[in-house]
Specification:
The protein is of the alpha/beta class. The protein is 38% helix and 21% strand. It has helices spanning 2-22, 46-52, 80-97, 117-126, 140-144, 176-187; strands at 40-41, 59-60, 69-75, 106-113, 133-136, 152-159, 162-170.
Length: 190
């Protein structure tokens, strides 16, 4: 009888520990850490593919983008803060693209949390977003990056097959020139 109770207690303890481990929160990517190898859906828009230095269809990873630095905006088309930040991010894109020394070295993408391709396209058209927006309708990407709130910005420096996190923060970017100077300095771009 004691053996059955002990065995039952061990099974219950193991089940409890498995539940605790499976529900443990994943923290957002930390500065100095390595960005996870997310599988992202390639855009069907040739302009988006050319901007990222990609071709074909299917999936890609951040590490495949032809750039030194990638700015990743985690957004949702339903987030009023993301809607309010859209003009500022568009301005950042223009600031980068108008600078010959940064144009091909820094790229921006957006990942639409709980957004389908249809929804990211609506957001892209409504706010005249010039950079690629990638849907995450099933929250798979969102879970991998720590279920961050929106808008959330992560900046990675690409080093071969690794993407080192050099910026990771919730909220608006603030002054684009100051932000861009910080990214150039943190990444070692000259």
């Amino acid at each position: 009888m004691k053996r059955k109770i002990s065995s039952l207690a061990i099974v219950i303890l193991l089940l409890f520990m498995a539940k605790v481990i499976s529900t443990a929160e994943i923290s957002p990517p930390q500065v100095g850490g390595i960005f996870p190898e997310l599988e992202l859906l390639k855009s069907s828009n040739p302009v988006d593919l050319k901007y990222l230095g990609l071709s074909g269809s299917g999936i890609f990873k951040i590490q495949q983008v032809k750039a030194d630095v990638v700015i990743i905006e985690i957004f949702s088309m339903y987030c009023p803060y993301c809607q309010g930040e859209a003009p500022n991010v568009n301005n950042l894109y223009t600031l980068i693209e108008s600078n010959p020394s940064l144009r091909n070295r820094i790229k921006i993408i957006g990942i639409g949390i709980n957004n389908s391709l249809f929804e990211t396209d609506i957001f892209k058209n409504k706010y005249k977003i010039a950079f690629p927006l990638i849907p995450d309708g099933d929250f798979k990407l969102h879970k991998t990056i720590g279920q961050v709130r929106t808008p959330y910005f992560i900046v990675v420096k690409l080093k071969g097959d690794k993407a080192e996190v050099i910026y990771s923060k919730l909220g608006a970017l603030g002054d684009n020139k100051v932000f861009l100077e910080q990214i150039v300095k943190s990444s070692g771009l000259k």
